Amino acid sequence: MAEKEHIAVLLDEKRVFxxxxxxxxxxxxxxxxxxxxxxxxxxxxKKAEDYEWFWGEVSKEVVNWIEPPRKILEWxxxxxxxxxxxxxxxxxxxxxxxxxxxxxxxxxxIFEGEPGDTRKITYGELYKExxxxxxxxxxxxxxxxxxxxxxxxxxxxLPIAMLACAKIGAIHxxxxxxxxxLALRERxxxxxxxxxxxxxxxxxxxxxxxxxxxTDEALEDAPSVEHVIVYRRTGDxxxxxxxxxxxxxxxxxxxxxxxxxxxxxxxDPLFFLYTSGxxxxxxxxxxxxxxxxxxxxxxxxxxxxxxxxxxYWCAADIGWITGHSYIVxxxxxxxxxxxxxxxxxxYPNPDRWWEIIEKYKVTILYTSPTSIRLFMRYGEEWVKKHxxxxxxxxxxxxxxxxxxxxIWYYTHIGGKKCQIMDTWWQTETGQFCITPLPITPxxxxxxxxxxxxxxxxxxxxxxKSIKNAGGNLVLTHPWPAMLKGLYKADERYRQTYWSRFKNxxxxxxxxxxxxxxxxxxxxxxxxxxNVSGHRIGNSEVESALVSHEKVAEAAVIGKPHELKxxxxxxxxxxxxxxxxxxxxxxxxxxxxxxxxGKIARPDExxxxxxxxxxxxxxxxxxxxxxxxxxxxxxxxxxxxxPDAIKELEKAK
Length: 652
Ligand code: WT7
What we know:
Residues about 1-15 have low confidence and may be disordered. By secondary structure, the protein is of the alpha/beta class. The protein folds into 3 domains: about 5-90 and about 270-520, Rossmann fold, CATH 3.40.50.12780; about 90-260, 3-Layer(aba) Sandwich (Rossmann fold); about 525-650, GMP Synthetase, Chain A, domain 3 (2-Layer Sandwich). Helix 6 crosses helix 7, helix 9 (about 180-190) crosses helix 10 (about 210-220) and helix 19 packs across helix 20 (about 580-595). It is about 35% helix and about 20% strand. The protein is built from 22 helices and 29 strands. The chain is globular. The chain has a 7-stranded mixed β-sheet with strand order 5-4-17-16-18-19-20, with helices on both faces. Strands 12-11-8-6-7-14-15 form a 7-stranded mixed β-sheet, with helices on both faces. Strands 21-22-23-24 form a 4-stranded antiparallel β-sheet. A hairpin with a 2-residue loop joins strand 9 (about 200-205) and strand 10. The site of 5'-O-[(S)-butoxy(hydroxy)phosphoryl]adenosine (WT7) has 23 residues, from helix 13, strand 23, strand 24 and strand 26.
């Protein structure tokens, strides 16, 4: 309680956490500022408004083009080409350069398996493993531009598989290992993957998750797939299709550990990553080699201040954008040493993470408010068992961090000596967009200001820039790691992000800008849930529910949840003559888990006679939400079925 009161006071005081002068002096960003005669943070932001100069200049710090760009930016809204004309392959900087240089024997990844097995992989070793797999993929007929779906857990083979694809110019599409067979199938079919890379099974919370079995189920209806490459993680017995399946260790056995890196155009696609939208199926977000390399590497170098002796741990899953950008590509470009942990944060005990930090002397920790709240609930006794003094910088991502969690993180994990980088960004942005630098004064709960060279604002519905009020978060100028559209969905791309304000990117979040120009992100504006820092479309959960034979209709909303940010609440209309029961609720929850993965399983299911809809048949989720949260529902006369609101009260 005392801690709570303390926080309230902090908020009233609007206290600001300033980094020490001594710390600032040693940061990467300060060194760059000194080199360019820039004295203050504000001056840096101002100077970087010359966007092309800025990104052209900082790109020199992180990438080595095969052939340099003719032009920094070509902006044909809503498509941007960065580093136009440059010849490049991200693998050249992420791997080849280190393996051939003085980082050859430096550790790239420290792997900690859930059962406690560990591996350390140097840049030189990583290079060889990637090359062997790349050669094997080539031998199987995978070529530049072909798509490869990767369905792997948090083991080093996941980055190895991604890099092997990128090396030969194939496009990877990683599917989070927590997703179900049907979610995998949908993603494979959308990009028409030629091959799938998976493993037998992996460890999670002391159990084994049967990925190969799930892959087989996905492939029951995925005609594009010719090969399945299976890495042996646990040694479990698995189903096998002689014509289609190949063991990873067998196909690489006779392969050379040298493989030429395919020369690509800076604007050629590197990967697709699917993310949820308000309607229909997941969107295949496209990222390219050049701009993505610059945008992710510069932001990581400055925001997390990566130095040669850091042990950096981004505790996200590589299956999401956070892992793609900040476990795989950016840290490798910077030649960093990163941790990869396979398992659950609280397995076997709630101090597993603190144990890992102490064991490897982790210096930078980057995680989500959901995880922080989980650890808060277990209490600081678990933290106190370990020496976390090695930590010098902290980070947060995925959802707004509530000041209470911020202070806990600051106090108990950072020992009141570490700045917290609250980074706002998205699958689509590829890189941090609104984020502090280690030199930025912090306000708990605010992601502070746009990264230099990124232009963000808050607009009212008329497109006017506003302060001190909630509005639409927008990005008003292209940034290097910006998505290159959605795969085979140009119209949807234009509609979703660019139709609201002219030549301006609509992020889909509500935010407020204060008098100091600090941004306070308040959550999603559209019908997308944010569960544990991951986006899930309300409509996706609804269609999963409706695909059950006993369900006629469903409306899904998010409700604030102490731990997860939002919990999923479903209102279900059953088909005629179906009896509501608790067993059926359970069955429906499992049904959604099977369709989409456990992350999308509704926390609450309520049976109702009707759900409120507009005359055009759109489910009024906002209204349902207001009703559930006990807020006013306003004028409901435009509804096709105004009585449905009252029906919600009779929910069983
Ligand atoms: C959405 C993007 C980017 C990696 C993780 C999620 C929310 C993200 C923050 C933050 C408040 C945040 C937004 C955003 N979000 N970071 N620091 N503060 N909200 O990636 O699945 O593409 O989701 O996550 O709502 O739009 P994603």
